[in-house]
Amino acid sequence: MRIGVIGFGQWGPNHVRSFGRIDGCEVRRVCDSAPARLTLARKQFRDVELTTDPTAITLAPDIDAVVVATPVQTHVALVKQALEAGKDVLCEKPLAATTAECRLLCDLAAQKGRVLMVGHVFLYNPSVQHLKVDLDRGELGRIYYMDAVRTNLGPVRRDVGAIHDLASHDISIFNYLLGATPSTVSATGGFFLQEKVEDIGFLTLTYPKGVVCHIHTSWLNPRKVRQLTIVGDHKMAVWDDMNNLEPIRYYDKGVTADHYSTFGEFQMILRDGAIVIPKVKLYEPLLRQDQEFIECLRSRRPPSASGDFGSAVVEVLEAARASLQQNGAVVKVGAA
Asked: Which CATH superfamily is domain 123-285+315-332 in?
């Protein structure tokens, strides 16, 4: 498999390194518009061809698949050009700025019979995959709600706000774990450093079966926190992505209503059981993601983080933006 990588900024170098570790795979060419980045690429990967022209990858006959790791405003043109040229594409998240653009790319990929994958790397995180297995087999019972916190001091962006920048990770995790998309979203935020770009954001999403999910995002926080709490009627779980040794804890805790014979009399009984720390086998999520991309090219099957999956995340972000503009009004997903 001959790979071309467009964009050698934050994620591009990691993709070049990752694909270089996969058997039967070769990163043949790297493109970036900044000469300084290409100089760095030359130092790190001496055998890779370099170019400032993206068509030297998207239209090149010696390239089988294209990785797009550029700013979101460039995604549509680059992905469209690669798909029309018969290339399979892995595009960093978000797939596009709008749902309409995402659907255009998904339809084109289907028309051309090409694999379109979106870089929602948390789907390939070992802790998230561990939680997925346990949720699917009912380990936590009926899920009541999930609460995600993703905060840090910076980096502050100018092109998109904290919700678009950070919440997309947790939306993708919620959608993956629940195997569903939310029906409504409500979003509020704070604009402290820039007039039209939110520094903090709070989202509430409603999923099928009454599951409520909440996200707290901020790049104006003294602590870096990456945490997910899942509450079920049987057990509860906490995933701390900053803890590499013991990332997941299961709590045998819950609340039950003890009914009495007298009409209307009952009391809530708290159950406080053991805490279990499962052994999670760690691996690099990006490598696992890129491996699945190559497997999908060979088997011609859709990936977990497909174009449709990425489009659903953008649809939620669009609804969140509409809610933010309406001071937190509840917005139907798909109607923004």
From this structure: Dihydrodipicolinate Reductase; domain 2 (3.30.360.10)
